[in-house]
Here is the input.
Amino acid sequence: LNAHFAEQYQGKLLLRFDDTNPSKEKEEYEEAIVRDLASMQIVPVQVSHTSDWFDQLIEMATQMVKDGLAFVDPSPQEEQQALRMKKKPSPYRDQSVEENLRLWKEMQLASEEGLKCCMRAKIDPGSDNGAMRDPTIYRCNLTPHHSTKDKYKVYPTYDLCCPIVDSWEGVTHALRDRQYSDRDAQYAWFLEKLKLRKVHLWGFSRINFVRTLLSKRKLQWLVDQGRVDGWNDPRFPTVAGILRRGMTVEGLKKFILGMGASKNTNLMGWDKIWATNKAVIDATAHRYTALLSNGLVKVTLRGAPAEPYAESIFAHPKDESLGKKIRFFAPTVWLQAEDAETIAPGEEVTLMSWGNAIMDEVKKDASGKVVGIDATLNLQGSVKSTKKKLTWLADTPDLVNIELVDFDFLLTKDKIEPEDEERIETILNNDTKFVDAALGEAAMRQLQQGQIVQIERRGYYICDSPYVRAADPIRLLFVPDGKNMMGVKR
Here is the structure.
């Protein structure tokens, strides 16, 4: 949305990393964010860090103390929290400017006395809004910063630096999650008291999806526990995860713009976002055939050429501009067993991309299972007259091994309650990845990693591992389409 508004109104998109807590910030997080933005074709005109402004922020904090807008509180954190809950001021709130400056210097030196202190803004300890009750704006931290190393011993809070650096960097409009809405008054207070240029805030609600974790801490736990393959796991609600599963940048943008910067709290199913994506991929996804290896029935076709042969056919039936592929034909073909079970002797069916065939004899074993079919090609027959349109593969050595991968939700519960956050293992789904062996047509050797295709009568798939050698199967991940979350019925 930020990128969209910047483009729509000929503005500038600024990317800033608020690296104010050296205990939590990691360079790999920043690299992942930049990489994800690039994968969504979003390029900010400026990339900065709050740490770029640390010197100026310390000067600003010092001036706030001198102007009576802040004080240094040496009382234990528990006492501070207790007084804030009671809407009562700290006993150190009105100490002299000189004492505040002395303690502020001790904080910057990280002395024994200074380490016990924090700096707090003097706003309104009796406010009904907890964010206005003299919030902490500086605290000591001896952890080396990933950028500034051990130059500083004090670090500003997000509450302080966000409005200040927004104003300094020229931000005109800041989109913020509505979970920060109780801090909007605080944001405005800092800008007003520090006589800084105003910034327009626009609050929007985060989209929550059913059976989905959005907490970085809990997602990290799943990674650490080996429940997933990493941050780009197709089951993860990360940019890398959903793109790997087959979400397109265009589909994602259309969905987000369709939602807009809504102020309503949403708990959504995944059907709408995947349906939006389907409308994008259907027009360009090449069509291929793949059949599950477990359950193939051979059909012998009378009237077919005695030897296998190949033809060049269009890769997409509705768009010839997308090119062609090679399709093999043979006197014996494979059908999926579940299709073969539905065929009656003498029934005429359509073999997709070839033509009609009359199923003369359906052979079954002692248990009634179909083990073979004798048929006669009837290419003059009308495809409109048949009820069954069946996928098939020519029985040739050129078939490729494929893995069709389905994913289920990581959680068993639609809505995650606060109490679930601390016992997440109790609502974890233990079976979330399903792999089925399949055979695919020879042309699938040409698939590229990340290419989205449609497996006829099964659904859309994205190529996760392309063809390298015969011993290693091509891995295709099912792309949900708004109706189906899996390609193989279970």
Summary: The mean pLDDT is 95. Residues 275 and 482 are 4 Å apart (CA to CA). The first strand starts at residue 14 and ends at 17.
